[in-house]
Request: fold
Amino acid sequence: MRILLLGATGRTGRKLMEQALARSHCVHALVRDPAKMTTRHHELRLFTGSPLDKDCLQKAMQGCEAILSALNISRTSDWPWARLRTPVNFLSTVMQYLIELAPQQGINRIIFISAWGVAETRQDIPGWFRWFIENSNIRYPYADHERQENLVQQSSLDWTGIRAAGLTHFKNKKQVLVSFHNQPPPRLTISRNNLASFMLDTLEQNLYSRQLPVVSEK
Reply:
């Protein structure tokens, strides 16, 4: 399958790109800085530009059958109060463009990363985690995740928003726990490797259409 991948130079996006190529998919990666791309593969096609540029986005999605987004609002460090590097409406703006442009290119399927703690799941997360979201710069991506979820739910696209628990760098393969309405209760974390694998499984097996599964690890 030919896939447009957004966020390919991020920590989760890299895992997603590597696994997609390993599964014999053709990947169109739209990146702002091609120098950050160390992967070379005959099925990888790089497009230079920002997803906030509609022309760049449209060129990158030509010929694709699905869109996978690992975009997030980033900070200058992992410190919760670190300065933002992307606009506070980055995710929702890109989603608006995707909703407009995807049908023009014959693309209906989009799978994107959201977060456990967004919208109604805020009540399900631990109190200390909720405090960080409400009192630090972490609140900006959570607010924009909710905005992008609202936008895509009003669209005609075949979408899946994957609400990931806290992301880790562990490579050990654990079983993914999928939760709806806090059942079964999610665990606190999921590895980026497992999240990437889950996204590709969702695409390949056409799972969770127009749903918002919470994913963590057993």
About this structure: The beta strands are 2-6, 26-31, 44-48, 66-69, 109-115, 158-164, 166-168, 176-179, 189-191, 214-217. The first strand starts at residue 2 and ends at 6. The radius of gyration is 16 Å. The mean pLDDT is 96.
